[in-house]
Specification:
176 residues, mainly alpha, Serine Threonine Protein Phosphatase 5, Tetratricopeptide repeat, 0% strand
Amino acid sequence: MSGGKMLIKRMICLVCVLMLIKTSACYAQSLELGDIENNSCQKHCESGNEYFYNNKALDKALNEYNVAVKLDSSCTYGYNALGNTYYSKGLYNKAIQNYKIAISQYPEYSYAYIGLGNSYLKTGSTEKAIECYKKVLKINPNYASYEAYKGLSEAFKILSSKYAYKAKQALSLPQN
């Protein structure tokens, strides 16, 4: 097998492992919070996870997560999962609403801040996104730092493009 193909296989494996770690860590953090103790809430969150992660059936996942938070309005994990699902559907404002609820219930919820920051980036609120990523690094610099640094990188890239465009306009330079 050529070096390039081996590198691609290793990168794919690394991405899969990172996704599994993120999902497990997020779920473990919710168990730590005690918000998946309610058996019905837990059952619906687990069903929603099956639809979201294994089947990519986002509407069915939304249904399960909505049932979970209706059964237990303190189901922080359910609100974060709703945010993730709305984000995946491109419904960023609804994602923002749900991430904010999760954060209001647990202000140290790193992954909710990551989702909120990502949603802010998608809606053009770059400065708000940066604040979310900074909050993650302040809360727990080791827990979700890869995601936070990735988001910060994207946010700064967006800002630098905006400022470069404005500088070119101000100097009346030709646009590329």
